[in-house]
Amino acid sequence: MKNSISFEEAYDAVMKHEGGYANNPDDTGGETYCGISRRFHPEWPGWKYIDNVKENWIKKIKSNTKFKGLSKDVKAFYKINYWDKINCDLINDVKLVTYMFDAAVNCGTIAAGKFLQRTLNVLNNRQRSWKDIKVDGFIGAQTIRMLRTAYLGGKASLIHTAFTIMRGAYYIDIMERRESQEQFAVAWLSRLWIKIT
User: Fold this and answer.
1) What's the predicted TM-score (pTM) here?
2) Is 177:4 a contact under the CB 8 Å cutoff?
3) What does the pLDDT read at residue 56?
């Protein structure tokens, strides 16, 4: 079984779940391109390209439109803002790193980090196997060390399961609090078991 994955492989898997341009008024991210929200990432250079298209070519861009000229900008953004931020290169588990990377893209890096930290804390058998770690969402040396300890203890499958459960509960909580978000249920929940193909 393969125990590591490249950014390119994970990126390709995640991009199968990300659309192109969208401006759904019910989406809390507002205007987005390939999952990059203008509201949360107004500094992304791709917005200048999209604004230019809207001003000079297409006043109303069709939903899910993709622009080849933005491919490199999107990929660089994902590498810096998601992959690197949650230290994916330090996680030697194809399934978990894919889950983590996709969760960072779709839920945010802090949420993805908290899913992992909470998972590790509930699997430590009342701190008999390893100490609880601070649930702050930052994947640093302590989280990676406890993750490796959990793997040595044979907990890989349980980590995958608990992480997926926490992510699913996160989506359900959002939809229960804001009914308008139920329109995203199929897309969100179908991402829970993302695979590298």
Assistant:
1) 0.91
2) no
3) 86
Q: Is residue 123 situated within a structural domain?
A: yes
Contacts of 102 (CB under 8 A, 6+ apart): 10, 13, 14, 17, 191, 194
Cα–Cα distance for residue pair 9/63, rounded to 1 Å: 26
Q: What is the CATH number of the domain that holds 152?
A: 1.20.141.10
How many domains does the chain fold into? 1
User: Is 13:194 a contact under the CB 8 Å cutoff?
Assistant: yes
pLDDT mean over 30-47:
95
- Residue 17: both structure tokens together: 């779940």
> How far is Cα of residue 16 from the mean position of the Cα atoms in its chain?
13
**Range(s) of the domain holding residue 173:** 7-17+72-190
Do the domain assignments include residue 48?
A: no
CA distance 99 to 168: 12
Residue 196 belongs to a domain: no
In three-state secondary structure terms, 21 is: strand
Burial call 148-184: b when 16+ CB within 10 Å, e when fewer? eebbeeebbeebbebbbebbeebbeebbeeeeebeeb
